Amino acid sequence: MKNLFLILFVLAGTVAVAQKPAKLKVTYNFENIVEGYDHQTKTEVYVDNKLVATSKEHKQSEPTTISVATTRGMHNIKVVNYAYYNGQWEARSTDNGYSTDGTVTKDWLLKKKNALSVTYDLNQPDPVVK
Predict the structure, then answer these.
(1) How far is CA 65 from the centre of its chain?
(2) 8-state DSSP, 95
């Protein structure tokens, strides 16, 4: 019986922590932009496969920050960058002919305040995530 109460107590505590708010600040920038190729870009942030924020459209040369409100606990965070090319938005990826992949995925135990920094170095295939 004591074990049952202990299990219920632990589960209740886990649920209570998971329901507390968390903030995630995603900052990203581009390096080594070739002159004349400063594309329009935007970025989407997903938490547990749910779209929670989209940046404004802007030039790659403009560093941007997106703030997301979610809950504390373990989450899958995905950041997807898009480029506007030939009149349409397309995911930045090496499969689409870009020099850098624009998708970052991370399983993360979110606390009260969290920060994710992504640098897309256009001379490198993978973004630098901190």
Answers:
(1) 10
(2) G
Q: Which of 104, 108, 107 shows the shortest CA–CA distance to 118?
A: 104
CB 94 within 8 Å of CB 100: yes
For the question of whether the overall pTM of this predicted structure is more than 0.70, the answer is: yes
Burial of 12 by CB count in 10 Å (0-12 exposed, 13-18 middle, 19+ buried)? exposed
pLDDT in tens, 2-57: 565 555 555 555 555 558 999 999 999 999 999 998 999 999 999 999 999 999 99
Dihedral, 72, 70, 130, 127 alpha carbons, nearest 10:
140
Q: What is the largest CA-CA distance in the chain?
A: 71
